[in-house]
Amino acid sequence: MPSHTVLARLTSLLVLMLFAACGQAEPAEGSAAGDDETSAATRLERPVGHLKGPVPGIPDPGDSDEKLDGLFMQLSYSFGNLYKIWYFFTPAGYVYLNNIPPGGLEFFDFAKAAQEEPDNVGSYVVQGEKLIITKADGEVDELEFGHDQDDPENLEIDGLFASKADKFEPGETFEGTYQGGASVGGGAVMSTQTYEFSKDGTYKWSAIGTVSMTTSESHVSAGSTGEAQGTYKVIGEGNTIELTPAGGETVRYTLFPFENLDGEIELVINGGFYGPLEPAAESSE
Predict the structure, then answer these.
(1) Which of 54, 89, 164, 241 is the most exposed place for a label (fewest CB within 10 A)?
(2) 282 occurs within a structural domain
(3) Are 251 and 45 in contact (CB under 8 A)?
(4) Is residue 12 part of a domain?
(5) Are 56 and 138 within one domain?
(6) What is the DSSP track for 194-223?
(7) 113 and 201, same structural domain?
(8) What value does the mean pLDDT of the chain take?
(9) Is residue 177 scored above 50 in pLDDT?
(10) How are the residues of the chain apportioned to helix, strand and coil, as percentages rounded to the nearest 5?
């Protein structure tokens, strides 16, 4: 394949990565930019699956020994790579697994997921030391289950520790600059994203992406950038952030704080981990 064709495809992938990273998710329903009249009740109206009742496309939950609630993360190492596994449970008996729910936990649409990702959504029951998940595609997973001895808020699922995601206070604001990145193709396509949050409820976002390819005949590369600024708000029960870019539409992301091994608090935004940046050192003359 000609090198320029490969580069064009890599560049298209980079644009898609930046587009997704920029927060071009579905606009928050009923909360377009400048819509200050949206009531809290409307904004926090939850789709089916969060409260007791049937969900189209998903088997009804059976009798369960306990009801689970919240987002849980597992870390798994395989062939030198770190993988994240997610479980989002509701007390109504439904679960979304493998991926992090986009767009905020309280607003996750189980019925829509049943149509689009039937292998990642279903109902669950806890029976003794077993967690039984019946997916929308009919597959049934029977997993070992228990609570962590040191902190019962956390779980043990299928032999792996599952930590429960923490929350912010609704309406809480924070100060700091956070950066994260992603790469595909062994680093052929890379993007770095930076969020700068201020206590006054404003934010700035920027992204830099690069694509590169080396052949026996040449080395070609290309880059792309993006930026936005506006206001933010933590809503719901503290695991949803709304970003309203200036002149744009409000979007929602799933959000939670995560303490890393160095004791630093990272922000997890729609599954991406953003570490705090140290303040730039003053230059000495």
Answers:
(1) 54
(2) no
(3) no
(4) yes
(5) yes
(6) EEEE-TTSEEEEEEEEEEEEE-SS-EEEEE
(7) no
(8) 82
(9) yes
(10) 10, 45, 45
The answer to whether residues 166 and 254 touch, using CB atoms and an 8 Å cutoff, is no
CB burial of 29-56 (b: ≥16 within 10 Å; e: otherwise) equals eebebeeeeeeeeebeebebbbeeeebe
pLDDT tens for each residue of 35-94: 443 334 334 578 899 999 999 999 999 999 999 999 999 988 877 777 889 999 999 999
| Beta-bridge partners for 269 | 255, 272
Asked if the model's pLDDT at residue 159 lies above 50, the reply is yes
pLDDT in the model for residue 175? 94
Say how far apart CA 87 and CA 9 lie, in whole Å: 33
Whether residue 154 sits in one domain with residue 69: yes
* Residue 56 within a domain: yes
Give me the count of residues in the chain. 285
- Residue 95 domain flag: yes
Are 213 and 6 in contact by the 8 Å Cβ rule? The answer is: yes
DSSP character at residue 93? S
Q: Which of 128, 146, 164 is the last residue of a domain?
A: 164
pTM: 0.78
- Which of 164, 195, 216 terminates a domain? The answer is 164
In terms of average pLDDT, the best of 139-143, 212-216, 262-266 is 139-143
Tokens of 185: 């193709």
Distance CA 68, CA 90 (A): 6
In whole angstroms, give the CA distance from residue 226 to residue 253.
18
Please indicate, yes or no, whether residues 25 and 84 belong to a single structural domain of this protein: no
Structural domain boundaries enclosing 99: 47-164
181 residue type, one letter: G
